[in-house]
Amino acid sequence: MKTTHILRTLLTCAFFLGVLSMNAQNKIYVYKSDKTTDEYNIADIDSISFTAPASPVEVDYTKLILNEVSGNNKFVEIYNSGTVDIPLNGVKLQRNDGASEWDGTSADIIPAGEYRLFLFNGYTPAADLDANPANVGWTVGSGISAGQILKVAIVDPTGKEVSVFIRGDEPLPAWGSTTGVTSNTTDSYSRMSDGTWAYAAPTPGAENGPKTSDIVSPGYLTATPPPPAPPEDVDYTKLILNEISGINKFVEIYNSGANDIPLTGVKLQRNDGVAAGGSEWIGTAADVIPAGAYRIFLFNSYTPTDLNTNPAWTGWTVGSGISAGQILKVAIVDPSGTPVSTFIRGDVPLPAWQNTTGVTQNTTDSYSRMTDGSWAYATPTPGEANGPKTTDIVTPGYLTAQP
Description:
mainly beta, Immunoglobulin-like, single chain, 7-stranded mixed sheet, 30 strands
């Protein structure tokens, strides 16, 4: 009897849909027992079913494991340690917090128990990577190096890191730093069976071999260190961007407060920092700006050379240069991620950072903060109070907060 009712209902639905279609009707109405009505477009109805839709399958992304990272042959290997295939739609493989990354699509899967390779720019086919069965065409922009501070992470679709390898000790310097980094030009960073990492002979697409030596100078981390807790009662708003020179390639910060300010976890960012394609400096527990003091940060290609003997320079440097002829953003960001002082060369609506179209250039003066909080061009005074305005900043002007 129940089967008869179901068939009758289906035939009735089919009949009505057919009649409505033949009569050029485009909507169907469902009148419910609570006296309300649901309206549907017939064109949107694909099928009618009395069976509830299947629940989405829960994917355990923690079974995706970084297994081998080769700065010499320029590949990263991921292993699916689970018993079921893992779809990679929305999964990312990131280098240095997204300085370059691969984004998975619905077509990308790692079968249970299998390895997959990701090739970076400059990969070495001497390892037969092109013909390796674990190479299915997944590539990542930018290269990786065996002689740099490096982070590689698998990030699940929610943005959570599920497997991380970092070449570097705490406190971490900037990604890409080569200072004091030893380089092994033969072996890969390889995950051992106990979850530790060591150097081992490259085995792309296969189980890792035995350890050849330890990873030292620096060592490694398997999780991103949490940001250091900021000291209590620090007023970071007293840190003020005071002078920015796209000609001499420096930024000056002034501590306008009555107390020394520790810079643990504070960032000086150019163009929204490394993750956005810019550059940044990150303060450590050793970094402090005394009350009433100026400090300068030197960028690549700074001039003149005597800036490195200025008493306001204590060794703080930022990768990449800054230009007086580009759309530019410089910001001081406190440990919570809040910008506390910002300078932007550009008008609303802002074009892309580093855009040069229509940007006039003053090849003599700095962007300088005046005593009333406005900005103007003035003669460079690194490490000292700014001088008087020489001219206004125009074409484009400036902003002191992100629009």
